[in-house]
Amino acid sequence: MAAVDTSGDERSDRVGETNFSEQLLMMWRALMASPLRNTIAGLLGGIFLVIVAIAFGTVLLNRWNQPFYDALERRSVDDFLRQLLVFAQIAGALLLMNVLQTWLNQTLHLKLREGLTIDLVGEWMKPRRAFRLASAGSIGVNPDQRLHEDARHLSDLSADLGIGLMQSTVLLVSFVGVLWGISSGFVFHVGGRSFAIPGYMVWAAFLYAGVASSISWLAGRPLIRLQSERYAREAEFRFSLMRVNEHVDAISLAGGEQDERRRLELDLGSVMDAARQIVRAVVRLTWFTAGYGWVTVVAPIVIASPVYFAGDLSFGGLMMAAAAFTQVHASLRWFVDNIGGIADWRATLLRVASFRSALLKLDTLHDVEQRIAFDTADDERMVLEDIAVASQEGCTRLSEDRVEVRPGEHVLFSGRPGSGKTLFFRAVAGLWPWGKGRILLPKGQTITFIPAMPYVPPGTLREALTYPRGAQEFTEAALTEALEAVGLEKLSGRLSRVGRWERELTADDLRLLSFARLILHKPRWVVIDEALDMLRGNARAQVIAALARAVPDAAIVNIGLLNGEFFTRTVKLCVDSQRPALKPAPAA
Question: Model-level pTM?
Answer without folding.
Answer: 0.60
